[in-house]
Amino acid sequence: GAVVSQHPSRVICKSGTSVKIECRSLDFQATTMFWYRQFPKQSLMLMATSNEGSKATYEQGVEKDKFLINHASLTLSTLTVTSAHPEDSSFYICSAPTAPVSLYGYTFGSGTRLTVV
Amino acid sequence: DQQVKQNSPSLSVQEGRISILNCDYTNSMFDYFLWYKKYPAEGPTFLISISSIKDKNEDGRFTVFLNKSAKHLSLHIVPSQPGDSAVYFCAASVQGAQKLVFGQGTRLTINP
Questions:
Q1: What pLDDT digit, counting tens, does each position of B4-15 carry?
Q2: I need a surface site. Which of A60, A63, A82, B87 has the fewest CB within 10 A?
Q3: What is the mean pLDDT of chain B?
Q4: Closest Cα of chain A to B76: distance in Å?
Protein backbone atom coordinates (compact mmCIF):
# COMPACT_ATOMS: atom_id res chain seq x y z
CA GLY A 1 0.00 0.00 0.00
CA ALA A 2 0.88 3.66 -0.15
CA VAL A 3 3.45 4.86 2.35
CA VAL A 4 4.39 8.33 3.49
CA SER A 5 7.84 8.35 5.04
CA GLN A 6 8.33 11.09 7.65
CA HIS A 7 11.68 12.06 9.18
CA PRO A 8 12.89 12.61 11.78
CA SER A 9 10.65 10.74 14.18
CA ARG A 10 12.00 12.67 17.15
CA VAL A 11 14.02 15.83 17.42
CA ILE A 12 15.17 17.95 20.33
CA CYS A 13 16.41 21.42 19.53
CA LYS A 14 17.41 24.56 21.36
CA SER A 15 15.25 27.66 21.41
CA GLY A 16 15.95 29.92 18.49
CA THR A 17 17.10 27.21 16.12
CA SER A 18 15.25 25.86 13.10
CA VAL A 19 14.10 22.32 12.48
CA LYS A 20 13.18 20.73 9.16
CA ILE A 21 10.71 17.87 8.91
CA GLU A 22 10.49 15.87 5.69
CA CYS A 23 7.65 13.84 4.26
CA ARG A 24 8.17 11.66 1.22
CA SER A 25 5.51 9.73 -0.63
CA LEU A 26 6.80 6.31 -1.61
CA ASP A 27 5.41 4.58 -4.70
CA PHE A 28 2.90 7.33 -5.40
CA GLN A 29 2.87 10.99 -6.28
CA ALA A 30 1.54 13.43 -3.74
CA THR A 31 0.54 16.65 -5.42
CA THR A 32 -0.97 17.72 -2.11
CA MET A 33 0.35 17.25 1.40
CA PHE A 34 -1.43 18.24 4.60
CA TRP A 35 0.49 19.19 7.71
CA TYR A 36 -1.10 18.63 11.12
CA ARG A 37 -0.12 19.36 14.66
CA GLN A 38 -1.30 17.45 17.69
CA PHE A 39 -1.07 18.62 21.28
CA PRO A 40 -1.26 16.01 24.06
CA LYS A 41 -4.73 14.50 24.39
CA GLN A 42 -6.08 16.74 21.69
CA SER A 43 -7.17 16.32 18.13
CA LEU A 44 -5.15 16.70 14.97
CA MET A 45 -5.25 20.32 13.92
CA LEU A 46 -4.64 21.15 10.28
CA MET A 47 -1.87 23.73 9.97
CA ALA A 48 -1.41 24.07 6.24
CA THR A 49 -1.84 22.48 2.85
CA SER A 50 1.10 22.28 0.49
CA ASN A 51 0.70 21.88 -3.24
CA GLU A 52 3.51 20.88 -5.55
CA GLY A 53 4.81 23.87 -7.42
CA SER A 54 2.77 26.52 -5.66
CA LYS A 55 2.57 28.35 -2.35
CA ALA A 56 1.18 26.59 0.67
CA THR A 57 -2.19 27.51 2.09
CA TYR A 58 -2.18 28.16 5.82
CA GLU A 59 -5.05 27.78 8.24
CA GLN A 60 -6.20 30.74 10.25
CA GLY A 61 -3.90 31.50 13.14
CA VAL A 62 -0.88 29.65 11.74
CA GLU A 63 2.14 31.88 11.15
CA LYS A 64 3.46 31.21 7.67
CA ASP A 65 6.79 32.88 8.42
CA LYS A 66 7.30 30.57 11.34
CA PHE A 67 6.18 27.34 9.71
CA LEU A 68 7.78 27.32 6.27
CA ILE A 69 6.40 24.73 3.89
CA ASN A 70 8.02 23.69 0.66
CA HIS A 71 6.62 21.18 -1.81
CA ALA A 72 9.36 21.11 -4.41
CA SER A 73 8.54 17.79 -6.04
CA LEU A 74 5.69 15.32 -6.40
CA THR A 75 7.20 13.13 -3.72
CA LEU A 76 8.64 15.54 -1.15
CA SER A 77 7.14 18.13 1.14
CA THR A 78 9.01 19.79 4.00
CA LEU A 79 7.97 21.76 7.06
CA THR A 80 10.56 24.00 8.68
CA VAL A 81 9.88 25.34 12.13
CA THR A 82 11.92 28.53 12.28
CA SER A 83 13.23 30.16 15.44
CA ALA A 84 11.64 27.42 17.51
CA HIS A 85 10.32 28.15 20.98
CA PRO A 86 9.21 25.76 23.73
CA GLU A 87 5.56 26.38 22.84
CA ASP A 88 6.28 24.87 19.40
CA SER A 89 6.92 21.54 21.09
CA SER A 90 4.32 19.20 19.65
CA PHE A 91 3.69 16.18 17.47
CA TYR A 92 3.70 17.08 13.77
CA ILE A 93 2.20 14.76 11.15
CA CYS A 94 1.91 14.96 7.40
CA SER A 95 -0.74 13.33 5.25
CA ALA A 96 -1.34 12.82 1.55
CA PRO A 97 -4.53 11.82 -0.28
CA THR A 98 -4.18 8.31 -1.65
CA ALA A 99 -6.13 7.64 -4.80
CA PRO A 100 -8.83 6.64 -4.82
CA VAL A 101 -9.55 8.48 -1.58
CA SER A 102 -12.88 6.69 -1.22
CA LEU A 103 -11.00 3.41 -0.96
CA TYR A 104 -7.70 4.29 0.68
CA GLY A 105 -8.37 7.51 2.50
CA TYR A 106 -5.43 9.67 3.33
CA THR A 107 -2.04 8.20 4.17
CA PHE A 108 -0.28 9.66 7.16
CA GLY A 109 3.38 9.81 8.00
CA SER A 110 4.54 8.35 11.28
CA GLY A 111 4.85 11.76 12.89
CA THR A 112 7.65 13.85 14.36
CA ARG A 113 7.88 14.59 18.07
CA LEU A 114 9.49 18.01 18.39
CA THR A 115 10.81 19.13 21.75
CA VAL A 116 12.22 22.63 22.05
CA VAL A 117 14.37 23.22 25.12
CA ASP B 1 -15.87 25.83 16.69
CA GLN B 2 -15.55 22.07 16.92
CA GLN B 3 -17.23 20.83 13.75
CA VAL B 4 -16.54 17.17 14.48
CA LYS B 5 -17.05 15.92 18.01
CA GLN B 6 -16.28 12.70 19.75
CA ASN B 7 -17.85 13.17 23.15
CA SER B 8 -16.43 10.06 24.77
CA PRO B 9 -12.72 10.49 25.48
CA SER B 10 -12.40 6.85 26.46
CA LEU B 11 -14.18 3.52 26.17
CA SER B 12 -13.45 0.17 27.75
CA VAL B 13 -14.82 -3.05 26.25
CA GLN B 14 -14.42 -6.73 27.03
CA GLU B 15 -12.60 -8.82 24.45
CA GLY B 16 -15.04 -10.50 22.08
CA ARG B 17 -17.81 -7.97 22.66
CA ILE B 18 -18.84 -5.13 20.39
CA SER B 19 -17.14 -1.73 20.55
CA ILE B 20 -19.21 1.23 19.45
CA LEU B 21 -17.50 4.56 18.92
CA ASN B 22 -19.59 7.62 18.23
CA CYS B 23 -19.04 10.85 16.36
CA ASP B 24 -21.22 13.90 15.75
CA TYR B 25 -20.75 16.70 13.25
CA THR B 26 -22.30 20.09 12.76
CA ASN B 27 -21.37 21.06 9.22
CA SER B 28 -24.07 19.84 6.82
CA MET B 29 -21.66 20.34 3.92
CA PHE B 30 -19.59 17.35 5.00
CA ASP B 31 -20.21 14.46 2.62
CA TYR B 32 -17.35 12.10 3.29
CA PHE B 33 -16.42 10.55 6.61
CA LEU B 34 -13.46 8.48 7.69
CA TRP B 35 -12.28 6.60 10.76
CA TYR B 36 -8.64 6.37 11.73
CA LYS B 37 -6.83 4.35 14.34
CA LYS B 38 -3.78 5.77 16.06
CA TYR B 39 -1.15 4.26 18.31
CA PRO B 40 1.06 6.51 20.49
CA ALA B 41 3.88 8.28 18.63
CA GLU B 42 2.62 7.00 15.28
CA GLY B 43 0.62 8.52 12.48
CA PRO B 44 -3.07 7.59 12.11
CA THR B 45 -3.95 4.54 10.04
CA PHE B 46 -6.97 4.62 7.76
CA LEU B 47 -9.67 2.14 8.80
CA ILE B 48 -12.87 2.72 6.90
CA SER B 49 -14.81 5.48 5.20
CA ILE B 50 -18.33 6.26 4.13
CA SER B 51 -19.85 8.62 1.63
CA SER B 52 -22.99 10.55 2.46
CA ILE B 53 -24.90 8.65 -0.23
CA LYS B 54 -24.66 5.56 1.94
CA ASP B 55 -25.80 4.83 5.45
CA LYS B 56 -23.61 1.81 6.08
CA ASN B 57 -20.24 0.50 5.02
CA GLU B 58 -18.72 -2.74 6.19
CA ASP B 59 -15.19 -4.09 6.05
CA GLY B 60 -14.52 -7.24 7.99
CA ARG B 61 -14.95 -6.57 11.70
CA PHE B 62 -15.49 -2.85 11.11
CA THR B 63 -18.80 -1.27 10.18
CA VAL B 64 -19.51 2.43 9.93
CA PHE B 65 -23.06 3.76 10.16
CA LEU B 66 -24.10 7.21 9.04
CA ASN B 67 -27.26 8.99 10.14
CA LYS B 68 -27.38 12.16 8.10
CA SER B 69 -30.52 13.56 9.69
CA ALA B 70 -28.92 13.30 13.11
CA LYS B 71 -25.47 14.29 11.80
CA HIS B 72 -24.10 11.27 13.57
CA LEU B 73 -21.84 8.42 12.65
CA SER B 74 -20.61 5.42 14.54
CA LEU B 75 -17.96 2.77 14.18
CA HIS B 76 -18.76 -0.76 15.28
CA ILE B 77 -16.00 -3.26 15.91
CA VAL B 78 -17.08 -6.82 16.44
CA PRO B 79 -15.68 -8.95 17.88
CA SER B 80 -13.28 -6.62 19.70
CA GLN B 81 -9.70 -7.82 20.01
CA PRO B 82 -6.84 -6.67 22.28
CA GLY B 83 -5.01 -5.30 19.22
CA ASP B 84 -7.89 -2.90 18.70
CA SER B 85 -6.78 -0.91 21.75
CA ALA B 86 -5.82 2.50 20.36
CA VAL B 87 -7.15 6.01 19.90
CA TYR B 88 -9.82 6.27 17.22
CA PHE B 89 -10.44 9.49 15.33
CA CYS B 90 -13.37 10.25 13.12
CA ALA B 91 -12.82 12.79 10.37
CA ALA B 92 -15.02 14.56 7.87
CA SER B 93 -14.53 16.42 4.66
CA VAL B 94 -16.28 17.93 1.71
CA GLN B 95 -15.40 15.80 -1.32
CA GLY B 96 -13.18 17.74 -3.63
CA ALA B 97 -11.91 19.95 -0.84
CA GLN B 98 -9.71 17.15 0.51
CA LYS B 99 -9.18 18.85 3.88
CA LEU B 100 -10.04 16.64 6.81
CA VAL B 101 -11.56 17.91 10.05
CA PHE B 102 -10.85 15.59 12.94
CA GLY B 103 -12.71 14.83 16.13
CA GLN B 104 -10.89 14.79 19.45
CA GLY B 105 -10.44 11.05 19.47
CA THR B 106 -11.69 8.22 21.69
CA ARG B 107 -9.26 5.95 23.48
CA LEU B 108 -10.52 2.38 23.18
CA THR B 109 -9.23 -0.22 25.60
CA ILE B 110 -10.05 -3.87 25.05
CA ASN B 111 -9.83 -5.89 28.22
CA PRO B 112 -8.94 -9.60 28.05
A1: 999 999 999 999
A2: A60
A3: 93
A4: 18
